Amino acid sequence: MERRLECALDAVRALEAALEKYETVQGDIQVLDAYLGSDDWKADFSVDEAGLLPADLKRGVLSEDGIWNLLEEWRELEERIQTLSKPSFSTRPSK
User: Fold this and answer.
1) Conformation bin of residue 73: beta by default, left when phi > 0, alpha when psi is -120 to 50
2) pLDDT in tens, the chain (95 residues)
3) Would you tell me the crossing angle of helices 2-24 and 26-35 to the nearest 10 degrees?
4) 61 neighbors 32 (Cβ within 8 angstroms)
5) Which residues, 6+ apart, have CB-to-CB distance to 61 below 8 Å?
6) Taking a C-beta distance cutoff of 8 angstroms, is the pair 62, 47 a contact?
7) Pick from 44, 29, 36, 40: which is nearest to 64 by CA?
8) Alpha-helical runs (H) found in 2-95
9) How far apart are CA 5 and CA 2, in angstroms?
10) Quick count: other Cβ atoms within 10 Å of Cβ 67?
11) Cα–Cα distance for residue pair 1/55, rounded to 1 Å
12) Which of 15, 61, 76, 86 is surrounded by the most beta carbons within 10 Å?
């Protein structure tokens, strides 16, 4: 039981830290969602295709699949969070 307690405490604390980080990027995800396929994205993509961006510049947002894949993973995670947030057991100890 002690091992179970320690394992559960570690998992809960790790999840709490991960959720705090996840909460901080929600605005970024919304901005990326709006950016994908927008006129701004198309203009940035065209500039890149014309070779006008530095060669060492990261281009994940212009890969067409980069943002899309993130949004799909985000939607799947949101569904999982919703499923896991439904009570699956009583929090009251039984006697």
Assistant:
1) alpha
2) 999 999 999 999 999 999 999 999 999 999 999 999 999 999 999 999 999 999 999 999 998 799 999 999 999 999 999 998 887 766 655 55
3) 50
4) yes
5) 32, 35, 41, 44, 67
6) no
7) 36
8) 2-24, 26-35, 39-49, 65-84
9) 5
10) 19
11) 56
12) 61
Provide the sign of the torsion angle of the four alpha carbons 90, 19, 34, 73, taken in this order: negative
Residue with tokens 């996840």: 22
- Hey, what amino acid is at 85? S
For residues 40 and 30, what is the distance between their CA atoms, to the nearest angstrom?
15
Nearest to 71 by CA among 29, 17, 41: 29
Secondary structure letter of residue 94 according to DSSP: P
Structure tokens that stand for 69 in this block: 């894949």
**Residue 54, helix vs strand vs coil:** coil
Q: What is the pTM of this model?
A: 0.78
CA nearest to 41, candidates 55, 51, 31, 26 = 31
